[in-house]
Amino acid sequence: MSVFPNAGFPPCALWDFALKLYSNPTVEQACLSLQNRKGVDVNLLLFCVWVAASGREELREVELEEGMAISHYWQEATVRPMRNIRNFLKPPLKYVDNRLTNELKRVVSESEIYAEKLQLLALDRLIDRPATASFSGSICARAAVQNLFKYLAKELDAEPDDQDRADIKAIWLAVFSEEDELFDEIA
To answer: Which of 10, 28, 126 is nearest to 71 (CA)?
Structure first.
């Protein structure tokens, strides 16, 4: 049984893109590495790639700042608290039936995903430039690298280290594998 069985959700190109990209185990691992090591927002990473891959070019400064503001607020108010609860419920709890805690963990997990979906919907609606639906080519690949590193620089307020670069490259390569040599040239 789903927590949100009747909740109609409008079409969201960013959600569709993010689901597909994040389903790649290498991308998931790289995203979680950046999240766990540096506190980076996975949804913003996917957003940075999507804007470029869909042919909208580089993020404008105001778009990145607004996207970060939306995401920081949304993550702080909804996603992180649910993630904390889900993580709290992972080990067996003393004096509580595991079936019950597993059910609560499932509901919280679905709620966390739904909250992330709403965050991606807000980010999707933030960009008002039409997509060219390119999804390939050196122009899109270049813009994606720029977007990712602009976000990382703002989020970390420091230069990315070698592991950060490797994680960003892994995410980027999942979309722009044909442009492999371009990453090291730009980054």
So the answer is: 126
Question: CA-CA distance, 101 to 55, in Å (whole number)?
Answer: 44
Separation in Å, CA 110 to CA 73, 85, 115: 20, 12, 9
Q: What single string gives the DSSP state of each residue in 59-89?
A: PPHHHHHHHHHHHHHHIIIIIHHHHHHHHHT
Q: 3-class DSSP state for residue 4? A: coil
Nearest CA to 183 out of 141, 154, 155 is that of 141
Sole residue written with tokens 């893109």: 17
d(CA 76, CA 59): 23
Is the Cβ–Cβ distance between 27 and 170 less than 8 Å? yes
Joined tokens for residue 125:
């609606």
pTM of the model: 0.90
Distance (Å, whole) CA 58 – CA 160: 19
Domain boundaries along the sequence of the chain: 13-186
pLDDT tens figures, 69-119: 999 999 999 999 999 999 999 888 888 888 999 999 999 999 999 999 999
Question: Residue 40 CB: number of other CB atoms within 10 A?
Answer: 22
φ, ψ of residue 14 to 5 degrees: the values are -65, -40
Is residue 1 predicted with pLDDT exceeding 50? no
Closest CA to 4 of 155, 92, 107: 107
